[in-house]
Design brief:
Length: about 130
């Protein structure tokens, strides 16, 4: 089951990170912020065994971001064109890593990410809302 959730969340992430900087979508602050929350939550859940994704909430959140982009006039084609953009994914990853470090954790360090994740959950932050302690 964990493998299925992991695959689903990774698939979810691979389709969202690029949307953040796609053309003029880069100017869409709320959409970018939502994608950032998903990106940080994904990094935490991948490295911390005591935290798992709230997959339904994450998928619903991602769908709401896409609907908002569509409402703002972006087409599916415009969004999809950037879904696989490696440069944009790298930019989102760099932003996520910077946040993680600002919070006193390290991006690839499970124990520090567990501390960060549990703190985000406890604070009921937008990142924490995408995670749950086991």
């Amino acid at each position: 089951m964990r493998m299925i959730l992991s695959f689903s969340f990774t698939l979810l992430m691979s389709g969202t990170a690029a949307i953040a900087s796609a053309g003029s979508l880069a100017q869409e602050t709320e959409i970018n912020q939502g994608l950032f929350h998903i990106s940080v939550a994904d990094e935490i859940r991948k490295r911390c065994d005591v935290i798992s994704p709230r997959l339904f909430i994450a998928i619903t959140y991602m769908e709401s971001l896409k609907k908002e982009a569509l409402r703002r006039g972006y087409s599916d084609a415009e969004i999809d064109r950037y879904v696989h953009d490696k440069t944009e994914k790298a930019k989102m990853r760099a932003r996520s890593d910077a946040y993680i470090r600002e919070q006193g954790a390290e991006p690839n360090d499970g124990p520090s990410l567990c501390i960060l994740g549990l703190r985000e959950i406890e604070m009921k932050s937008p990142i924490g809302a995408l995670l749950k302690a086991r």
